[in-house]
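Data card: per-record layout.
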Amino acid sequence: MASASSSRSVTQKTSLKRNADHLEEVSASTSTTKVAKVFPIFSKPQASDFQWAKPLGRSGTCLHGVNLAPKLHAKVAAFDLDGCLIESSFGKKQDPSTFKWWRPIVPNKLKSLYEEGYTIVIFTNQALRGDKAIDNWKKKIPYIASALSEVPFHLYAATAKNGYRKPMPGMWYALEALFREDGVTIDSDKSFFVGDAAGRAGDFASTDRKLALNIGIPFSTPEEYFLGLPAAPYKLPGFNVSTLPTNLPSYTPSSTPLVPTNGAQEIVLFAGMPSLGKTSFFKKHFEPAGYIHVNQDTLKSRDKCIKRVEQVMKEGRSCVVDNTNRDQVTRKYYIDLSQRHRVPIR
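The structure for this 346-residue chain is written out next.
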Protein backbone atom coordinates (compact mmCIF):
# COMPACT_ATOMS: atom_id res chain seq x y z
CA MET A 1 0.00 0.00 0.00
CA ALA A 2 1.29 3.44 -0.85
CA SER A 3 1.53 5.52 2.35
CA ALA A 4 1.32 9.27 2.85
CA SER A 5 4.86 9.17 1.51
CA SER A 6 5.39 6.52 -1.35
CA SER A 7 8.19 6.40 -3.89
CA ARG A 8 7.76 6.14 -7.57
CA SER A 9 8.50 8.26 -10.56
CA VAL A 10 7.25 8.40 -14.08
CA THR A 11 8.82 10.35 -16.90
CA GLN A 12 7.57 11.02 -20.39
CA LYS A 13 8.75 12.87 -23.44
CA THR A 14 5.70 15.05 -23.90
CA SER A 15 5.94 18.30 -21.97
CA LEU A 16 2.79 19.60 -20.32
CA LYS A 17 1.93 23.26 -20.56
CA ARG A 18 -0.28 24.09 -17.61
CA ASN A 19 -0.82 27.77 -18.26
CA ALA A 20 -4.06 28.88 -16.67
CA ASP A 21 -5.19 30.87 -19.69
CA HIS A 22 -4.60 27.89 -21.95
CA LEU A 23 -6.62 25.62 -19.66
CA GLU A 24 -9.52 28.07 -19.66
CA GLU A 25 -9.52 28.09 -23.47
CA VAL A 26 -9.52 24.30 -23.65
CA SER A 27 -12.30 23.98 -21.10
CA ALA A 28 -14.41 26.59 -22.83
CA SER A 29 -14.08 24.79 -26.14
CA THR A 30 -15.12 21.47 -24.61
CA SER A 31 -18.10 22.80 -22.67
CA THR A 32 -21.35 22.42 -24.56
CA THR A 33 -23.54 24.59 -22.37
CA LYS A 34 -22.93 27.83 -20.57
CA VAL A 35 -22.36 27.34 -16.84
CA ALA A 36 -21.98 30.04 -14.21
CA LYS A 37 -18.39 30.07 -12.98
CA VAL A 38 -18.99 31.71 -9.61
CA PHE A 39 -22.00 31.02 -7.42
CA PRO A 40 -22.89 34.07 -5.29
CA ILE A 41 -23.66 34.38 -1.63
CA PHE A 42 -27.13 33.32 -0.55
CA SER A 43 -28.66 34.06 2.83
CA LYS A 44 -29.78 30.44 2.68
CA PRO A 45 -28.73 27.65 0.30
CA GLN A 46 -30.97 27.29 -2.71
CA ALA A 47 -33.39 24.39 -2.53
CA SER A 48 -31.27 21.29 -2.22
CA ASP A 49 -31.89 17.65 -1.46
CA PHE A 50 -28.46 17.28 0.14
CA GLN A 51 -28.46 15.64 3.57
CA TRP A 52 -25.76 14.77 6.04
CA ALA A 53 -25.79 11.16 7.22
CA LYS A 54 -24.34 9.76 10.43
CA PRO A 55 -20.56 10.36 10.60
CA LEU A 56 -18.32 7.33 10.26
CA GLY A 57 -15.69 5.97 12.62
CA ARG A 58 -15.54 5.63 16.39
CA SER A 59 -15.16 9.37 16.87
CA GLY A 60 -17.30 10.36 13.90
CA THR A 61 -14.36 11.97 12.11
CA CYS A 62 -15.42 10.96 8.60
CA LEU A 63 -18.38 13.00 7.40
CA HIS A 64 -20.82 11.43 4.94
CA GLY A 65 -23.40 13.33 2.94
CA VAL A 66 -25.80 12.42 0.15
CA ASN A 67 -27.28 14.55 -2.61
CA LEU A 68 -30.66 13.43 -3.96
CA ALA A 69 -31.06 9.63 -3.88
CA PRO A 70 -28.09 8.06 -5.68
CA LYS A 71 -28.64 4.61 -7.10
CA LEU A 72 -25.58 2.44 -6.57
CA HIS A 73 -24.03 1.26 -9.82
CA ALA A 74 -20.97 -0.95 -10.23
CA LYS A 75 -19.10 1.86 -11.99
CA VAL A 76 -17.81 4.56 -9.62
CA ALA A 77 -16.60 7.98 -10.77
CA ALA A 78 -14.77 9.41 -7.76
CA PHE A 79 -13.36 12.91 -7.43
CA ASP A 80 -11.40 15.06 -5.03
CA LEU A 81 -13.14 18.34 -4.16
CA ASP A 82 -10.75 21.28 -3.78
CA GLY A 83 -8.61 21.94 -6.83
CA CYS A 84 -10.50 19.30 -8.79
CA LEU A 85 -14.24 20.05 -8.86
CA ILE A 86 -14.01 23.52 -7.36
CA GLU A 87 -11.10 25.95 -7.28
CA SER A 88 -10.99 26.18 -3.50
CA SER A 89 -13.34 25.31 -0.69
CA PHE A 90 -15.12 28.66 -0.42
CA GLY A 91 -14.50 32.33 0.14
CA LYS A 92 -13.16 33.22 3.55
CA LYS A 93 -14.43 36.46 5.11
CA GLN A 94 -16.10 38.60 2.47
CA ASP A 95 -17.70 35.78 0.47
CA PRO A 96 -17.97 32.82 2.85
CA SER A 97 -20.49 30.94 0.70
CA THR A 98 -19.05 31.67 -2.74
CA PHE A 99 -17.40 28.93 -4.74
CA LYS A 100 -16.07 28.63 -8.27
CA TRP A 101 -15.99 25.54 -10.45
CA TRP A 102 -12.47 24.39 -11.26
CA ARG A 103 -13.45 24.78 -14.91
CA PRO A 104 -16.90 25.49 -16.44
CA ILE A 105 -17.03 21.98 -17.92
CA VAL A 106 -17.18 20.30 -14.49
CA PRO A 107 -20.95 20.26 -13.71
CA ASN A 108 -21.89 19.15 -17.22
CA LYS A 109 -19.32 16.35 -17.08
CA LEU A 110 -20.66 15.12 -13.75
CA LYS A 111 -24.17 15.10 -15.14
CA SER A 112 -23.01 13.13 -18.19
CA LEU A 113 -21.30 10.55 -15.98
CA TYR A 114 -24.47 10.10 -13.95
CA GLU A 115 -26.49 9.63 -17.14
CA GLU A 116 -23.93 7.04 -18.29
CA GLY A 117 -24.63 4.92 -15.22
CA TYR A 118 -21.84 5.95 -12.88
CA THR A 119 -22.17 6.43 -9.15
CA ILE A 120 -20.68 9.87 -8.42
CA VAL A 121 -18.58 10.08 -5.25
CA ILE A 122 -16.47 12.86 -3.72
CA PHE A 123 -13.55 12.02 -1.42
CA THR A 124 -12.00 15.00 0.35
CA ASN A 125 -9.52 15.62 3.16
CA GLN A 126 -10.39 18.63 5.29
CA ALA A 127 -8.22 20.25 7.97
CA LEU A 128 -11.03 21.23 10.33
CA ARG A 129 -10.24 21.85 13.98
CA GLY A 130 -13.10 21.77 16.42
CA ASP A 131 -16.84 21.38 16.10
CA LYS A 132 -17.39 24.98 15.01
CA ALA A 133 -15.06 24.66 12.03
CA ILE A 134 -16.70 21.39 11.02
CA ASP A 135 -20.21 22.84 11.32
CA ASN A 136 -19.27 25.90 9.25
CA TRP A 137 -17.78 23.73 6.51
CA LYS A 138 -20.81 21.43 6.46
CA LYS A 139 -23.10 24.42 5.89
CA LYS A 140 -21.26 25.26 2.66
CA ILE A 141 -21.68 21.93 0.88
CA PRO A 142 -25.41 22.40 0.09
CA TYR A 143 -24.38 25.30 -2.18
CA ILE A 144 -22.52 22.81 -4.36
CA ALA A 145 -25.43 20.39 -4.18
CA SER A 146 -27.90 23.06 -5.29
CA ALA A 147 -25.66 23.76 -8.30
CA LEU A 148 -25.77 20.02 -9.08
CA SER A 149 -29.53 19.68 -8.73
CA GLU A 150 -29.67 16.86 -11.31
CA VAL A 151 -26.60 14.96 -10.13
CA PRO A 152 -27.00 12.52 -7.22
CA PHE A 153 -23.73 11.95 -5.37
CA HIS A 154 -22.12 10.74 -2.16
CA LEU A 155 -19.57 12.89 -0.33
CA TYR A 156 -17.04 11.62 2.20
CA ALA A 157 -14.86 14.08 4.14
CA ALA A 158 -11.98 12.94 6.36
CA THR A 159 -11.45 15.47 9.14
CA ALA A 160 -8.78 13.68 11.20
CA LYS A 161 -5.49 11.91 10.61
CA ASN A 162 -6.65 8.32 10.72
CA GLY A 163 -7.56 5.47 8.40
CA TYR A 164 -10.17 7.54 6.58
CA ARG A 165 -7.75 10.25 5.48
CA LYS A 166 -6.34 9.95 1.96
CA PRO A 167 -4.21 8.14 0.93
CA MET A 168 -5.48 5.61 3.46
CA PRO A 169 -8.41 3.69 1.97
CA GLY A 170 -10.94 4.12 4.79
CA MET A 171 -13.38 6.26 2.80
CA TRP A 172 -13.27 3.74 -0.05
CA TYR A 173 -13.88 0.89 2.38
CA ALA A 174 -16.90 2.76 3.72
CA LEU A 175 -18.20 3.09 0.18
CA GLU A 176 -17.67 -0.62 -0.45
CA ALA A 177 -19.61 -1.44 2.71
CA LEU A 178 -22.47 0.76 1.51
CA PHE A 179 -22.48 -1.08 -1.81
CA ARG A 180 -22.48 -4.49 -0.11
CA GLU A 181 -25.56 -3.52 1.89
CA ASP A 182 -27.29 -2.88 -1.43
CA GLY A 183 -25.99 -6.11 -2.98
CA VAL A 184 -23.72 -4.30 -5.45
CA THR A 185 -20.03 -4.98 -6.09
CA ILE A 186 -17.85 -2.13 -7.34
CA ASP A 187 -16.21 -2.80 -10.71
CA SER A 188 -12.67 -1.56 -10.08
CA ASP A 189 -11.66 -1.85 -13.73
CA LYS A 190 -14.45 0.48 -14.86
CA SER A 191 -14.20 2.87 -11.92
CA PHE A 192 -11.72 5.73 -11.55
CA PHE A 193 -10.53 8.54 -9.30
CA VAL A 194 -9.63 12.11 -10.28
CA GLY A 195 -7.58 14.39 -8.03
CA ASP A 196 -5.04 17.18 -8.11
CA ALA A 197 -2.68 15.92 -5.39
CA ALA A 198 -0.76 13.82 -7.87
CA GLY A 199 2.93 14.26 -7.15
CA ARG A 200 3.60 16.58 -10.09
CA ALA A 201 5.93 19.55 -9.98
CA GLY A 202 4.02 22.22 -8.10
CA ASP A 203 1.52 19.84 -6.48
CA PHE A 204 1.24 20.25 -2.72
CA ALA A 205 1.06 16.47 -2.21
CA SER A 206 0.55 13.13 -3.93
CA THR A 207 -2.20 11.72 -1.72
CA ASP A 208 -4.85 11.48 -4.45
CA ARG A 209 -2.69 9.39 -6.75
CA LYS A 210 -1.66 7.22 -3.81
CA LEU A 211 -5.29 6.61 -2.86
CA ALA A 212 -5.98 5.30 -6.36
CA LEU A 213 -2.93 3.02 -6.08
CA ASN A 214 -4.04 1.77 -2.68
CA ILE A 215 -7.57 0.88 -3.78
CA GLY A 216 -6.55 -0.36 -7.22
CA ILE A 217 -8.48 1.86 -9.62
CA PRO A 218 -7.30 4.07 -12.54
CA PHE A 219 -6.25 7.63 -11.74
CA SER A 220 -6.27 10.92 -13.64
CA THR A 221 -5.53 14.53 -12.80
CA PRO A 222 -8.22 17.17 -13.48
CA GLU A 223 -6.20 18.42 -16.46
CA GLU A 224 -6.05 14.93 -17.94
CA TYR A 225 -9.67 14.00 -17.25
CA PHE A 226 -11.63 17.19 -17.85
CA LEU A 227 -9.41 18.86 -20.44
CA GLY A 228 -7.86 15.89 -22.22
CA LEU A 229 -4.29 17.13 -21.68
CA PRO A 230 -1.36 14.67 -21.71
CA ALA A 231 -0.14 13.14 -18.48
CA ALA A 232 2.57 15.05 -16.63
CA PRO A 233 5.62 13.46 -15.00
CA TYR A 234 5.21 12.78 -11.29
CA LYS A 235 7.08 11.49 -8.27
CA LEU A 236 5.72 9.71 -5.23
CA PRO A 237 8.26 10.19 -2.43
CA GLY A 238 8.70 7.71 0.39
CA PHE A 239 7.67 4.12 0.88
CA ASN A 240 5.86 2.18 -1.82
CA VAL A 241 4.90 -1.39 -1.06
CA SER A 242 4.92 -2.30 -4.77
CA THR A 243 8.72 -1.93 -4.72
CA LEU A 244 9.08 -4.79 -2.25
CA PRO A 245 10.15 -8.22 -3.56
CA THR A 246 7.30 -10.66 -4.04
CA ASN A 247 9.18 -13.90 -3.39
CA LEU A 248 9.61 -13.47 0.37
CA PRO A 249 8.20 -15.97 2.90
CA SER A 250 4.79 -15.12 4.32
CA TYR A 251 6.24 -15.08 7.85
CA THR A 252 9.61 -14.89 9.56
CA PRO A 253 11.55 -16.62 10.92
CA SER A 254 10.66 -19.39 8.51
CA SER A 255 13.22 -21.75 10.02
CA THR A 256 10.88 -22.61 12.91
CA PRO A 257 7.25 -23.78 12.74
CA LEU A 258 4.65 -21.01 12.81
CA VAL A 259 2.37 -23.20 14.92
CA PRO A 260 3.99 -25.00 17.89
CA THR A 261 4.32 -28.71 17.19
CA ASN A 262 3.82 -29.62 20.86
CA GLY A 263 0.29 -28.17 20.92
CA ALA A 264 1.13 -25.64 23.64
CA GLN A 265 -1.70 -23.26 24.49
CA GLU A 266 -1.28 -19.65 23.35
CA ILE A 267 -2.98 -16.47 22.17
CA VAL A 268 -2.03 -15.08 18.77
CA LEU A 269 -2.84 -11.39 18.36
CA PHE A 270 -3.14 -10.09 14.80
CA ALA A 271 -2.62 -6.38 14.12
CA GLY A 272 -3.21 -4.56 10.84
CA MET A 273 -5.62 -2.54 8.76
CA PRO A 274 -8.66 -4.18 7.12
CA SER A 275 -8.17 -6.17 3.90
CA LEU A 276 -4.50 -6.99 4.53
CA GLY A 277 -5.15 -10.74 4.52
CA LYS A 278 -5.28 -11.45 8.26
CA THR A 279 -8.29 -13.76 8.05
CA SER A 280 -6.84 -15.59 5.05
CA PHE A 281 -3.60 -16.07 7.00
CA PHE A 282 -5.58 -17.55 9.90
CA LYS A 283 -7.48 -19.94 7.65
CA LYS A 284 -4.30 -21.10 5.95
CA HIS A 285 -2.05 -21.57 8.97
CA PHE A 286 -3.99 -21.62 12.25
CA GLU A 287 -7.44 -23.02 11.50
CA PRO A 288 -6.08 -26.43 10.43
CA ALA A 289 -4.29 -26.63 13.79
CA GLY A 290 -7.54 -26.17 15.72
CA TYR A 291 -7.12 -22.55 16.78
CA ILE A 292 -10.33 -20.70 17.65
CA HIS A 293 -11.08 -17.64 15.52
CA VAL A 294 -12.05 -14.54 17.55
CA ASN A 295 -13.24 -11.67 15.39
CA GLN A 296 -15.08 -8.46 16.29
CA ASP A 297 -16.88 -8.31 12.94
CA THR A 298 -18.58 -11.53 13.98
CA LEU A 299 -18.99 -10.91 17.72
CA LYS A 300 -19.87 -7.19 17.27
CA SER A 301 -18.00 -5.79 20.31
CA ARG A 302 -14.60 -5.82 21.97
CA ASP A 303 -16.10 -6.97 25.27
CA LYS A 304 -17.53 -10.05 23.58
CA CYS A 305 -14.13 -10.75 22.00
CA ILE A 306 -12.44 -10.57 25.40
CA LYS A 307 -15.05 -12.86 26.96
CA ARG A 308 -14.60 -15.34 24.11
CA VAL A 309 -10.82 -15.41 24.60
CA GLU A 310 -11.37 -15.88 28.35
CA GLN A 311 -13.62 -18.85 27.62
CA VAL A 312 -11.09 -20.40 25.23
CA MET A 313 -8.35 -20.04 27.85
CA LYS A 314 -10.47 -21.83 30.46
CA GLU A 315 -11.05 -24.63 27.95
CA GLY A 316 -7.30 -25.05 27.53
CA ARG A 317 -7.37 -24.24 23.83
CA SER A 318 -5.54 -21.70 21.67
CA CYS A 319 -7.03 -18.82 19.72
CA VAL A 320 -6.27 -16.07 17.22
CA VAL A 321 -7.67 -12.57 17.84
CA ASP A 322 -8.27 -11.44 14.27
CA ASN A 323 -8.96 -7.71 14.67
CA THR A 324 -7.13 -4.55 13.66
CA ASN A 325 -5.82 -4.15 17.25
CA ARG A 326 -4.25 -0.92 16.09
CA ASP A 327 -3.35 0.68 19.43
CA GLN A 328 -1.61 -0.30 22.65
CA VAL A 329 -4.74 0.23 24.73
CA THR A 330 -6.66 -2.40 22.75
CA ARG A 331 -3.80 -4.89 22.72
CA LYS A 332 -3.29 -4.52 26.47
CA TYR A 333 -6.68 -6.11 27.18
CA TYR A 334 -5.45 -9.38 25.67
CA ILE A 335 -1.95 -9.10 27.13
CA ASP A 336 -3.41 -8.70 30.62
CA LEU A 337 -5.73 -11.63 30.00
CA SER A 338 -2.83 -13.85 28.92
CA GLN A 339 -0.89 -12.93 32.05
CA ARG A 340 -3.84 -13.79 34.29
CA HIS A 341 -4.05 -17.23 32.71
CA ARG A 342 -0.27 -17.61 32.44
CA VAL A 343 -0.58 -18.32 28.73
CA PRO A 344 1.95 -16.93 26.24
CA ILE A 345 0.77 -14.33 23.73
CA ARG A 346 2.43 -13.24 20.50
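Known properties of this structure: Residues 5-35, 40-45 have pLDDT under 50 and may be disordered. The chain has two domains: 9-242, 267-341.

See the next section for split statistics.
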